[in-house]
């Protein structure tokens, strides 16, 4: 689990040339994207919200928490405040916290019944403990998080189901003033999430959250300008304790900037590079260099809110040129009333391939996406996709939220397959002639009986369309119940 193999940003000259190409492409393109209000929170809440509700709900990273307001004894109103924050001196403090999540899943016909399993019932455990030390008025920071993940009775294991006890995060921050703002230099093992997390997320729904080894720089100014640069390798999970390590076959680097605009509009601009030594896609196998450039337009005005991401991809795979595009969007309107109803329309689209094995790769790769937009059933992702449908969110109480969505799902190209998270296809669907993948109905309920305890319930039903049925697939239902304790 050595961190010495972490990738510095722009480690080689050709990576820097890729950044230059991305910068010029970003200057010439336009697009959109924004945050969802699904039960898995897309972004950390403003830090001052911790004064009234702490800790952060399940989802956002724990390193986003700031408890310095607990220097005031009158604000220590929670039983765990003495554990979560300790003042060590005039310029030093320590924050600690933990999480215990137990989750039960029941799936009928996993992967549309194409994996030889009729039902899969299993329990998963995730335990986390972290310590967050700040020195010299936050000029130096050290964050360490341990994680234990287990799964019992699972018929179809995946790489993110269990990894015993691991060092999930371990990084050092150096914060220095620069150009009227602050520059943060973070090196080590860390989580990463940007914008609405359409393409980069820490992925809370899976038992093992996504983490990386490497370097990240983040410059920000009080007026809203922000620029991040990073060079990372994803962490590969092992089966035993303390055997996770950097994936030396994959490099992930990029830039992400936020530009404040006038009025309710906000704009993010980004460019990512993903280099993989060996992958198979669209009938080709070989080394891939995939570059993503995009824009995110988001904001709110009165009862309206919106979040739109539009991205284009280029590069090459085994000598074939990559030309792909993707859109992730949600537009909502909040009605008046005691239950605070919000109606929203989700419209997602992503290109597919139009000739397997030829000299062009047309399938969009969403990189490291938050597929929670479509629920936790793991049956679709932003690749070769058209997805449209309404969402209704109700909050009868501040501690209770319900959300229901109904989506039609189609293939963008009938010459490409139906894609699952992880960029694998439903077996047999690439040979199907139909466009309709199916209809997805998902329902979520989140109840927080106390500030530290969260109960989640989800039921999803994916009615298989002709594209799946022609591949001998069937309808899939998914039930999940989870309880999370945090301090």
Automatic annotation (TrEMBL):
* Secretion signal span: 1-33
Keywords (alphabetical) are: Signal
Cited InterPro entries: Alginate_export_dom (IPR025388), Alginate_Permeability_Chnl (IPR053728)
The record's annotation in Pfam families points to: Alginate_exp (PF13372)
Q: Where is this region: Disordered?
A: 38-59
Q: Does the keyword Membrane apply?
A: no
Tell me the domain of life.
Answer: Bacteria
> Per the record's keyword annotation, is Membrane included, yes or no?
no
Cite the Alginate export domain residue spans from the record. Answer: 93-478
Q: What's the protein here called?
A: Alginate export family protein
Q: Which organism is it from?
A: Pseudomonas benzopyrenica
């Amino acid at each position: 689990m050595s961190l010495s193999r972490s990738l510095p940003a722009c480690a080689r000259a050709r990576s820097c040339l890729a950044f230059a190409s991305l910068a010029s492409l970003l200057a010439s393109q336009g697009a959109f994207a924004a945050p969802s209000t699904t039960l898995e929170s897309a972004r950390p809440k403003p830090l001052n919200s911790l004064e009234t509700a702490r800790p952060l709900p399940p989802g956002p990273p724990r390193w986003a928490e700031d408890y310095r307001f607990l220097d005031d004894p009158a604000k220590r109103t929670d039983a765990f405040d003495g554990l979560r924050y300790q003042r060590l001196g005039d310029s030093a403090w320590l924050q600690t916290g933990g999480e215990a999540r137990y989750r039960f899943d029941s799936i009928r016909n996993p992967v549309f019944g194409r994996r030889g399993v009729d039902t899969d019932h299993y329990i998963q455990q995730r335990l986390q403990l972290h310590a967050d030390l700040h020195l010299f008025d936050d000029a130096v920071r050290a964050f360490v998080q341990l994680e234990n993940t287990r799964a019992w009775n699972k018929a179809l294991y995946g790489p993110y189901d269990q990894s015993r006890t691991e060092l999930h995060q371990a990084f050092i921050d150096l914060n220095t003033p620069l150009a009227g703002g602050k520059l943060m230099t973070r090196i080590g093992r860390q989580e990463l999430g940007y914008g609405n997390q359409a393409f980069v997320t820490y992925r809370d729904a899976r038992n093992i959250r996504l983490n990386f080894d490497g370097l990240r720089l983040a410059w920000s100014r009080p007026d809203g300008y922000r620029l991040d640069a990073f060079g990372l390798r994803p962490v590969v999970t092992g089966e035993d304790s303390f055997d996770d390590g950097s994936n030396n076959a994959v490099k992930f680097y990029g830039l992400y900037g936020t530009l404040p605009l006038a009025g309710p509009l906000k704009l993010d601009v980004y460019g990512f590079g993903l280099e993989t030594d060996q992958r198979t896609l669209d009938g080709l196998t070989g080394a891939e260099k995939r570059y993503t450039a995009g824009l995110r337009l988001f904001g709110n005005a009165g009862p309206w809110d919106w979040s739109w991401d539009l991205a284009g991809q280029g590069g090459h795979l085994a000598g074939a040129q990559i030309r792909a595009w993707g859109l992730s969007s949600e537009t909502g309107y909040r009605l008046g009333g005691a239950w605070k109803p919000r109606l929203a329309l989700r419209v997602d689209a992503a290109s597919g391939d139009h000739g397997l094995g030829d000299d062009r790769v047309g399938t969009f790769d969403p990189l490291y996406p938050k597929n929670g937009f479509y629920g936790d059933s793991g049956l679709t992702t932003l690749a070769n996709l058209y997805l449209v449908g309404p969402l209704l969110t109700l909050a009868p109480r501040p501690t209770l939220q319900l959300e229901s969505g109904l989506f039609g799902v189609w293939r963008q190209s009938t010459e490409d397959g139906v894609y699952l998270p992880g960029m694998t296809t439903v077996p047999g669907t690439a040979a199907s002639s139909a466009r309709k993948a199916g209809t997805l109905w998902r329902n979520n309920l989140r109840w927080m009986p106390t500030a530290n305890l969260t109960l989640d319930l989800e039921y999803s039903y994916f009615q298989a369309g002709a594209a799946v049925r022609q591949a001998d697939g069937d309808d899939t239902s998914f039930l999940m119940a989870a309880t999370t304790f945090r301090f």
